[in-house]
Specification:
Blueprint (H helix, E strand, L loop, with lengths): L2 H4 L4 H15 L5 E4 L4 E4 L3 E6 L11 E7 L10 E6 L2 E8 L7 H15 L9
Antiparallel strand pairs: 1-2, 2-3, 3-4, 4-6, 5-6
Length: 126
């Protein structure tokens, strides 16, 4: 799937995606992996995702940014934080306007990129 297909008819979502992409570029080069459901940002490993909730549920939110961090962040801006694996906290941020992609978001993207580049600890169950 292409970016044009992903954002077909979703101009506001595309504008926010472009803002997120500029924020991601602050910390270096990246690749995009576009699928039917989301777009992943990848350096060495995938570290952030964007998706359009209105494709799947009733929602007026144009774009959601998701990042994985090693701990729960205390910001009230997060829509949801879940721990899908031990020591991995997925943070979901609803984006409605370009000004919401600010220095705080850049910091979270940098943290997510750094966290993704670290070797994963292996856990064993006894």
């Amino acid at each position: 799937m292409t970016l044009e297909e992903f954002f077909d008819g979703k101009e506001k979502s595309r504008q926010l995606f472009d803002m997120v992409s500029r924020a991601v570029s602050v910390s270096g080069a990246f690749e995009l992996q576009v699928s039917k459901s989301q777009i992943a940002y990848k350096a060495d490993k995938v570290f952030a995702w964007v998706w359009i909730p209105g494709k799947y549920i009733t929602s007026t939110v144009p774009l959601v940014l998701s990042v994985s961090l090693p701990a729960r962040d205390s910001s009230r801006r997060w829509k949801q934080i879940v721990e899908p694996a031990c020591g991995r906290f997925m943070h979901h941020l609803e984006l409605n306007a370009a000004e919401e992609v600010d220095d705080e978001v850049i910091t979270w993207l940098n943290q997510a990129r750094e966290f993704a580049s670290q070797p994963r600890q292996k856990y064993s169950v006894k």
